[in-house]
Amino acid sequence: QLQASGGGLVQAGDSLSLSCVVSGGTFSSYVMGWFRQAPGKEREFVASISWTGTMTSYADSVKGRFTVSRDNAKKMVTLQMNGLKPEDTAVYYCAGRYGYSGTIDNLRIYDVWGQGTQVTVSS
Question: Residue 5, class by beta-carbon neighbours within 10 Å (0-12 exposed, 13-18 middle, 19+ buried)?
Fold first, then answer.
């Protein structure tokens, strides 16, 4: 199971750090990803990190502002979000896929999802 936390209400330009803790399974064998879904929009890719942590990928809209990292010993993946914009407002979800190499930006490939955490950025 995945448990995401860290969301909240911030102002434009502020920073937030989201965390996703994994219980059960072999976390170090999971590719992890972050997705977000704004009201009335489809869920979209934000960032992904390989099971080794050596490979990351980002949506163009967050490159240079967001950083994904993982701590396999703590079974946790983190999304550091800097320079937040109102358009970053969404429910953020963490996801995992077991036994896959590299990073994954296709939500259909992930087989485990967290419950989501709300991020609201005011202008």
Answer: middle
